[in-house]
Amino acid sequence: MRKIKTILPLLLLASLLAGCQMAGFNQQPTGAQSAKAPVSKYYDFDDVQVPSGMNMIQDRSMIFRVGDFKAGVLTFQDRVDSVSLINFYMSAMARDNWVLKGSFKSTTSALFFAKKGKTCVVQITEGSLDTTLEIWVAPTMQ
What we know:
By secondary structure, the chain is an alpha+beta fold. Helices cover 24% and strands 39% of the residues.
């Protein structure tokens, strides 16, 4: 519950930033896959990639649907450098037509993205043994 209280203001901030500029989850990844091992894959959000090798934490993930729209949080963990994850999302989100609206960098870093009708917060928390990735997607408040 404390985690939700922490991230809720971040989602609100991302929604507000996007508003100024713009009027259960699947086990298997979706999207096109090449013959080589994919560098990333799509899970429930068809426009937000996840680096291959990240392990989904199902009991910390939640997706809800309204019509065709999906919102919620997907949580992953792996032994990966937080800077490499930040760099991954800076380029991957641009390829999926997301616009970076803001960010902060610390032990817990967050990237705020927006596109028409929705916002996304990518939160990266570096621990002593592994790094946690949370992907929050919410509708834009208009």
